[in-house]
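tool=predict chain=A
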Amino acid sequence: MKDLRITNASVPVKMFASALSCMVGLVYLVLLARIFIETQMKPAMIMKAYGSMEYVEVTTHAVEYLPFYLFFCFLVPISLFMLTSFSDKLKGFFAVVPFMFITLDIASMYLIPYLSASFAYVLWGAGTVLACTFLLLFLLNMYDMWLRKSK
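tool=predict ok
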């Protein structure tokens, strides 16, 4: 697997991976726009939006967001990242941590109306970490594909 590196890929493969990454980024921006429209990304608005939801509404929301997070926003960038020249420790971090925060994000949606509105801060924090993680993955993938010297 060490020979299979995105750094060593041909230009057309790198162009495809870059275009795919950009499209995933566009999907993520649309998701962020929807979240902004619903909550203005403010914990007080998150409390208000989720605090009044019934279990069925929260579940519907979770079902809408999970595919975005899992498949569109993280499966592609993390899969590409596993083909980079970065260390196994860093790859291990990105193999686990985003999925932990996705779980925390979705769990917080359920906890706001049923346990405490304060979980809006957890939801906001988890979402912020996910956005930063996605951006970091994008930048690291682009660096490894286009700027790092192949070996």
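The longest helix spans residues 11-39. The mean pLDDT is 91.
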